[in-house]
Amino acid sequence: MKKILVGMFAASGMTLALAAETPFIAEVLIGQSSQKVSNLADGDDSSTGIRLGYEFSDGWSVEGAFHDHGGFNYSSIDDDNKESIDYSTSSTTLGVKKTFDLSEGLSLNVHGGLALWNFDWASENTSTTTITTKTTNDSGSNSGSDVYYGLGLSYELKQNLLLSLEYSFLSMSIDSDKVDVSNFALGLGYKF
């Protein structure tokens, strides 16, 4: 009985010592996003992001991030009308990450959680008749929350410095439409 109590005490002390050394991580992400608005329009743009994480258990982290997914333009022209719509998206995410060690310094990362997103648009419609030309402008913004997920690889370049490559996906539900955002990003992270 005495050995069991000593063993439990030692194990709890080791757990507290490990928790005190649990690393924080800060990452900068640069990539390419692909966005599709229902069956209406799609486009690609560069994306940027910043992510902060905290490893609370071996291989498990909680993380928060901001991503600017960029934007794109949709244009249509027929005989009398010209329409142009600019779209842009961004998201703030809160989720968990599970890390699987593959080899020395190389790991597989699975991300998932809740994304609070913003979708902005601005349109210009020009109608031309034989007598007049009329231009109307409109804009709007939608926001909401949906689930995101991602998969990636990270490599420890040297102690506390990481290089990562990842894919993430977010599907935004806006009224009866959907905006799908796929993102490939290269990240540079620092553990502290």
From TrEMBL:
InterPro entries: Beta-barrel_OMP, Enterovir_OMP, OMP/PagP_B-barrel. Gene3D superfamilies: 2.40.160.20. It comes from the Bacteria. Residues 8-192 form the Outer membrane protein beta-barrel domain. Residues 1-19 form the signal peptide. Keywords: Signal. One of its GO terms (cellular component) is host outer membrane. This is Porin family protein. It comes from Marinomonas transparens. The lineage of its organism: Bacteria, Pseudomonadati, Pseudomonadota, Gammaproteobacteria, Oceanospirillales.
